[in-house]
Write a structure and sequence with these properties.
The protein is α+β, with helices and mostly antiparallel strands and 383 residues long. It is built from 11 helices and 16 strands. The chain folds into 2 domains: 158 residues, no CATH class; 216 residues, no CATH class. Helices cover 41% and strands 24% of the residues. α1 packs across α3, α2 packs across α3 and α5 packs antiparallel against α6. It binds zinc ion.
């Protein structure tokens, strides 16, 4: 199998360092200057910016900051040019947050500390925690990003792509994620809690009545962060359990699903809010990067018809009560999520379903569908 390199990030908090403030200011000013020059002279490559600006922007600070700032500016300019094609009135990008990017080789990690140069012979040290040290121990470390309170380290490793014999298909729904694998096992990961959290914060935000934008922004940012942390934790548990089974991943491509729930589509605002807060992409992102890190293949299949067609014979199914579907041809009643996951699996593995494969499932689905809470470790159960 071909060798490839995969990259991941790990981050930790650090205490606010006053000695970093002048460097933040310097970094920001170079990056903004580079954006200005880039737009004026129509330069987008990092190399072009470097050629144009390096000698002008050198100062008493460590010169590696210029590389990081120009890289940051180049990526902002690239994005700006891309967006400008769609919307000519787009604002010129401007960096206002305090941050730093340092390429590999500019900093040093020793004795559990990271040493960041500020000026010649002057350094700032940040102590790394156990988790970060454990993660980066055997990996090749790339660039680092430092913000006011966070340190983000990217690291990579060489992997050989695996060629797994079994695959698992994932059907993502608002309330759960259902998996079905080639060994005919299915698991339903309950994600209702994530939706409850989102609903709680939505209600909390709607109660805010003060007519003050600055306060509202600050409070909403705080709520947003809390909400994100809680929901992402649930999704992390789910994605880890799915990927840890060491199977190839098959997902449905549901890009553009937000278009279905827009204003004016004839749906209620509460329904739209619920559907649009569905974090289907976050789960996909997590599964994908975790699978890539292990060298497992990730496939995408077309989503149309997966939830309405019979997994056994392919005919249109009739909806029943309690999220069940019945097939008039095969005379079976199955859970709609399991049916969808089976359809996705069949598309991904190109296995054409033959005969009534759902018979074994009928009993199971009627009695007790194995439902697991996404947060509490149900891994032994699913095995
Ligand atoms: Zn059927």
């Amino acid at each position: 199998m071909p060798l490839s390199r995969v990259t991941k990030c790990v981050w930790q908090h650090h205490n606010r360092k006053t000695e970093l403030q002048p460097v933040f200011d310097y970094f920001r000013s170079i990056a903004n200057e580079a954006i200005r020059t880039g737009i004026e002279k129509n330069i987008t490559s990092q190399f072009g910016l470097h050629y144009e600006l390096y000698y002008r922007l050198r100062s008493e600070f460590y010169s590696q900051y210029i590389y990081g700032a120009l890289r940051c500016a180049a990526s902002k300019l690239k994005f700006y040019r891309k967006m400008k094609r769609k919307n000519p009135q787009i604002k010129i990008p401007h960096i206002s947050k305090n941050h730093l990017i340092l390429e590999g080789g500019a900093y040093k990690i020793s004795d559990g500390q990271i040493r960041i140069p500020i000026r010649p012979r002057q350094h700032c040290r940040i102590k790394l925690n156990h988790y970060v040290l454990e993660q980066i121990r055997c990996a090749k470390i790339g660039s680092i990003t430092i913000t006011e309170d966070k340190l983000i380290i990217s690291y990579s490793k060489q992997i050989t792509g695996q060629n797994p014999v079994s695959f698992v298909a994932i059907d993502r729904n608002l309330d759960n994620a259902t998996t079905y694998d080639t060994q005919d096992k299915f698991t339903i990961y309950d994600l209702q809690k994530a939706n409850q959290i989102k609903q709680t914060y939505r209600q909390l935000k709607s109660k805010f009545k003060r007519n003050d934008v600055r306060i509202r922004e600050r409070i909403f940012a705080k709520y947003g962060k809390k909400e994100r942390n809680r929901v992402h934790h649930i999704l992390h548990c789910t994605s880890k359990q799915i990927v840890d089974q060491n199977m190839g991943i098959i997902l449905e491509d549901i890009k553009g699903i937000r278009k279905l729930y827009r204003r004016g589509n004839g749906q209620g605002s509460k329904f739209r809010a619920r559907m649009n807060s569905w974090s289907f992409y976050e789960l996909q992102r997590q599964i994908e990067y975790k699978a890539r890190w292990l060298g497992l293949p990730v496939k995408y299949v077309k989503a149309s018809g997966t939830s309405s067609k019979c997994a056994a014979c392919g005919s249109k199914m009739v909806p029943e009560e309690h999220r069940m579907l019945s097939c008039p041809h095969c005379n079976i009643v199955v859970d709609r999520d399991i049916n969808a996951a089976r359809n996705i699996l069949a598309r991904g593995t190109r296995v054409v379903p033959v005969g009534i494969a759902g018979e074994a499932m009928v009993e199971e689905s009627k009695k007790n569908i194995l439902k697991v809470d996404a947060v509490q470790l149900p891994y032994q159960l699913t095995r």
